[in-house]
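Q: Structure for this?
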Amino acid sequence: MTVETIGLQDIQTLARQETAKLHHFYIGVEHLFIALTQLKGGLTVAVLEYHGLSPRFIRYSIRESVGRYEDRRYWPGFPETPRAVKVLNMAQHYAGTQSPSERDLLLAILDESDSVVSRVLHEMGVNAAELRRTAANWAEPLRPQPPEVPIHGDVVLDDEQQRVLQLMFRDYAEVHVVREFAGGYSGARVLLARPVRVDGHKDAPVVVKLADRYSVLYERRRYDLHVKGTLPTTTARLVDAPVVPDESAVGGLKYTFVGRLDDTDPVNLREFASRADPQKLSDLIRGLFEMFGPAWWLQRKPYRFGIWREYEHVLPPALVIEALLDGTEATVSHRLQPLGVWSRTSRVMPGEVVVLDGFAVQKVNTEHDVLHLAAGAQPEAINRASKVEVRGLGVSEKTYFRGETVGRLVGRVVRTRDDLLMRAVQDLEPNFDLRLQQIPSEHDTVGDLPNPLFRITELLDRQASGYLSTIHGDLHLGNILVGPRGDAWLIDFGWTREGHTLFDWALLEASLLFEVVAHLAPPGWEGVWGTVALLDSINRGEDRVLRERHQVARMLTIIPTIRDVVRECLGVPERWDEYYIALALLSLRLMSWQSEGVDARRLAFLVSALSIAAAQSPPQTGGDKPWTDVTTDLDQTELRVDD
Amino acid sequence: MTDAELVIMIMSGPDDGREIHLSQQHGDGYVSVDGTWSLVFGRREECDVSIPFDTQVSRQHAMLRLMPDGELWLVDAGSLNGTFIDKRRVEKPTLLERGELFRVGRTWLRVQLDPDEFMTDE
């Protein structure tokens, strides 16, 4: 186990660093041996010290013997000498079917006995046969440390994150963490890193994501399934296998850019929006659609679906339960199975005892002893419906793993989704009565708005006719990077899946409102209502935002660009309810992002309300027949397996 | 002695471990009327033993002579950085033992002892 983190690859990396330092630029036995003496906690160091030899002095002697060359290269890369090839082959022979260990390589070098190393050891009066015997018979435990790649920069990382970063760049001499992208909400860290090779060459910058190991593995899998091969070459690509050390909770992913990226660093769209002209932002979003559209959103597979299938998962869990470990069933009120209507109605009440059967583990939080369950393990949105949060199970990493189906679980309901949403809205310090069906308007041009808290079931049970396509699944501003030439890339493919085409665009709009526009508006509910009024004018097809010159209006001119994209993706021409429902539900999701201030969350709440209103009535300009699509979902009856 | 052969192994640098097989039959080197076989070491590619990547090796650096009686003599060819047997600089033609290390520029070399016992990589 201890050897798992250290292998030939690390030794060769150190050897390359050594040969570059000496300007040799080839890998000889001497460089390999010097690398062995640099493995802290390794066998070579232990054996040398056992014989009273200083690894440092041995390195010094070998270096003096071979000397430093001129800083000029005669070949690319780091070719191995014929003798190094021979020694590596011997080590492989000793290792059998395994990958050679440090011991195999050390024995091979000593056995070959004709190298610079052997000559220098001989000059030093070292008895190589004794060294070999000690190395071959060494039985005491060793703790080899992987070589440390120095990490530079001001970004503060914890020990585990540093270690993963070092493993990700173990081939390099050093890594400069240039900056951290403004954080998302998931606790993942997204960094811009510039690795420097052993010969001092600075490689192109890479975006690095450090997150919990499961999300890293999961994202890589989504990327392989949905992204690889389908995107234009300028997309940020995931490179290398994900780095997920066995004993670490953190894993890492690298995104590299295939497009051009010079010395100027990319920024994410959120930062770009804060300093760029809104027109540029519009152009970028349009460009993004044109570049990625054909492979993704324009797949146009007709899709008739119950809204809950694609959107229930963006809402808080349907239930929070406290596990009852003794399993008394006498008072059980409901037996719940995944995808039952119970998760979309308010039928289950706090205090009731429920039995869960056949749910899949989505997330294990050992720190807070919380288990997140949902319908299934696959990435499609429906598998994240029927969310239940279970507390008090005493979970540890070992008891549950992601994707596992949990047998029977009994618990008492402590919160319902309604409670959670109600609390989230209370946090906004509303200046109106939350129990009212309508939110009284505080702006001349906007009418009263429906209170989203009472419309969730209705929205989730609606049917929509749209399109299915590959979607990014988490297309907020933070996941779009902009390069110095105005090229855009997408990162973070953790939620990439087949799904409702408009999901991405509704989230992008919500994210723009929530993360950018909200900061430009005057503080307080008044400012929020002002923004809502402008958005309402856009919904009604008016051009108020073009005529008003203040910051909020100017930033909102981006919305019509998004809406133009949406128009091309609507399942039925001009049937905007498909979009507004998505926007209403995704806004409620953003309302629970604690990363933003209260006014941003207030705006998210009112945008949800406004969108519900818009979904209920056709636009004045449309003149279509009224939208009355609140139907029973016939397709889903067979899925209603509870009660 | 028209079928004499020598195997020289490079003992340091980027070609460390490479064996150079030289034979009169293949026309390596130059055989004078008295039967002495001369091999030229240097940085140039035309040299019998070419050491192209060592900047301290002169274009024509040293000569190795195999005498009809089987003795090996190492001669410096007026090189800039010198020819050495072990640590001794070769000022005048010097007798070289098979298996003994010698150096041109900073590259160490060795005439192999017995052609049948050479290490073979391939």
